[in-house]
Design brief:
The chain has a single domain (about 35-160), classed as Chitinase A, domain 3 (Roll). It has 3 helices and 8 strands. It is about 25% helix and about 30% strand. Strands 1-2-7-8-4-5 form a 6-stranded antiparallel beta sheet, with helices on one face. By secondary structure, it is an alpha+beta fold. A hairpin with a 5-residue loop joins β1 and β2.
Length: about 160
């Protein structure tokens, strides 16, 4: 029995080392157009199954209106105040604001194309979820914490529209 104790200690140390080494190994996540297409399909299927009314813009954004707005839609040059949350399809929020104000389609605007297109189909007071494919967001390169080929989901509310000149 005494011969087993040193052997057991050595085995335990080796097992601990193996678990530590292989447990710390990073898992490679592959981002591709195929993965993105699958994510978008799953999102659409899930919302159809939940009887959500999914609409599509002429440019390929999918959206679900949660609350209809009233008044004019946003056009270039309008100053718009938006309440929003930007998230991955997993539900992880990467950005949000309760009061974000900007001039729509200003020459110095750094807004993603999908955001600009989404804003234009909304009225003041409207709340909607927009699925923005990566081609209208950060594309094949990604940006900061947003990986390449990542569709984004924005929940947006138009709080105020000041008509531009």
């Amino acid at each position: 029995m005494k011969n087993w104790i040193p052997c057991f200690k050595v085995c335990a140390i080796v097992m601990f080392a193996l678990v530590f080494i292989f447990g710390c190994k990073k898992t490679e996540v592959t981002y591709s157009a195929e993965t993105e297409a699958s994510q978008i399909k799953n999102w659409l299927d899930s919302n159809v199954k939940s009887n959500k009314n999914i609409d599509t813009t002429s440019t390929g954004l999918f959206f679900i209106v949660g609350k209809k707005g009233a008044g004019p839609t946003v056009v270039a040059g309008d100053t718009v105040t938006v309440k929003y949350s930007g998230m991955f399809l997993s539900g992880t929020v990467f950005d949000s604001s309760n009061s974000f104000t900007y001039v729509h389609k200003a020459a110095n605007s750094r807004m993603i194309q999908g955001w600009e297109e989404a804003i234009e189909v909304m009225n003041k007071g409207e709340i909607a979820d927009f699925l923005v494919p990566s081609a209208k967001a950060y594309g094949v390169n990604g940006y900061s914490s947003i990986p390449p080929f990542t569709p984004l989901l924005f929940t947006m509310e138009i709080v105020e529209i000041k008509i531009g000149l």
